[in-house]
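Issue: ligand-bound run for 2-phosphoglycolic acid - logging full I/O for the record.

Environment: standard queue, default settings, no custom constraints.

Inputs:
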Amino acid sequence: MLKRPVLAANWKMHLGPVAAGEFMRSFLERYKPRPDRTVIFFPPAVSLASMTAMVRAAGRTDVLFGVQNIHWAEKGAFTGETSAEMAKEAGAGIILVGHSERRHVFGETDAQCAKKCLAAARVGLPFLLCVGEKMAQREAGETAAVVTRQLREGVAQVPNLISAEFLIAYEPVWAIGTGLTATPVDASAIHTLLRSELGAMIGTRAAEIPILYGGSVGPGNAATLLAANEIDGLLVGGSSLDVTTWIKIAES
Ligand code: PGA
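Outputs:
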């Protein structure tokens, strides 16, 4: 089970192998292992193998790596795609599924997210499933319906969900990369809703599933968000790209 809080950096399409290596060298020097939390990096897939090798060589087991996306098939004629098996081989210990940019820029559906969560489970890796409403859905009062549907449909194919290892991230689409953040009270309310939805699916085990918040998190709001009820961690985009800023957040 992952230690909470979970502080996860989503680098998106930033930091190729060279820049990622420089970042990591500096991070390992300056961030000392802390047994009271989990730190995760989701670098671009091409940067993953060299980063995991660097961390292994440094003898650091306190940092976990993941991929930002996978294809659900094990292998095949899927140009441009990476399977869960390959991600695992390159050092991934976790798989991000259904990030809002995957859903809304690349048209990923709940059914595809479900197949990706299943693929992660197939290789024995935890998945981090992202859910979140768009501004128009929020304004139409549809937030609860959208996030519960994304949650239910996303995990629908995972066998033995009750014993599967996974995490959820609530990332309101309107807050991602915009400088707008859900207030801790608003975020808490959605996290509570997601927890109770999980409870309906997996009973008391729901309490063990980390629910992260994401969307314009920075060093100025990280601690307040983490202190809010039911927020077990943070998924951070823009503010994870600068090593000093990221260390501040990781130490919140
Ligand atoms: P942001 O991105 O922190 O830049 O808003 C968060 C995310 O997309 O996971």
